[in-house]
């Protein structure tokens, strides 16, 4: 009887997940900086236990800043030096640019090094009011493309708006949309909800 080595029988499964956070830091988030930072950091730490995790974080107001672009989760720690509030809410520009930037990076990444699962979490505490480059139609097309061709998943968190309606406008399913209160307690509940939703998507 021929003995096969364990390496020959081994099936390699890529359990890497990239979590992409599009975080609102417009002026209306004033006073909620510390709870946002602590909630975000706790969420990332909990997600590390579910397998190899990469983190991309984008901060937006009426400007757009990529804070981290696909770094290991254990290197991702948000601070007051990163997260401070200002400006208005260019939500569409932030989402559109994030999808294009990450998509381009992953297209240049060898297939064996790409995450098996990509989940985008969009958080805003108000309506779009400042985008100049992207429209709802264009962002919806981008999101639908990533969902259908690459199986990206999206979660939408919204305060002071109809979260389900706004998610639908973006091409995100209502059952992946959640409303939250723009308060200390509301932010804590929101991050707990996001963590549970991410964990469920990662296990599915």
From TrEMBL:
Task: Enumerate the InterPro entries for this protein.
Answer: vWFA_dom_sf (IPR036465)
**Source taxon at top rank:** Bacteria
Question: What is this protein's name?
Answer: VWFA domain-containing protein
- What organism is listed for this UniProt entry? Desulfuribacillus alkaliarsenatis
């Amino acid at each position: 009887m021929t003995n096969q080595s364990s390496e020959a029988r081994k099936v390699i499964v890529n359990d890497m997940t990239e979590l992409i956070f599009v975080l609102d830091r417009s002026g209306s988030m004033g006073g909620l900086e510390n709870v946002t930072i602590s909630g975000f950091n706790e969420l990332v730490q909990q997600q590390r236990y579910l397998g190899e995790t990469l983190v991309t974080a984008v901060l937006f107001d009426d400007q757009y800043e990529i804070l981290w672009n696909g770094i290991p989760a254990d290197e991702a720690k948000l601070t007051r030096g990163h997260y401070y509030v200002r400006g208005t809410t260019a939500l569409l520009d932030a989402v559109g640019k994030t999808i294009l930037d990450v998509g381009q990076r992953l297209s240049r990444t060898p297939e064996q090094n790409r995450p098996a699962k990509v989940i985008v979490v969009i958080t805003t505490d108000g309506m779009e009011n400042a985008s100049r480059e992207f429209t709802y139609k264009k962002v919806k097309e981008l999101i639908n493309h990533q969902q259908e061709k690459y199986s990206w998943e999206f979660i939408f968190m919204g305060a002071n708006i109809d979260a389900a309606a706004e998610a639908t406008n973006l091409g995100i399913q209502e059952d992946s949309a959640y409303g939250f209160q723009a308060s200390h307690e509301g932010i804590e509940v929101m991050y707990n909800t996001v963590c549970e939703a991410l964990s469920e998507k990662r296990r599915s």
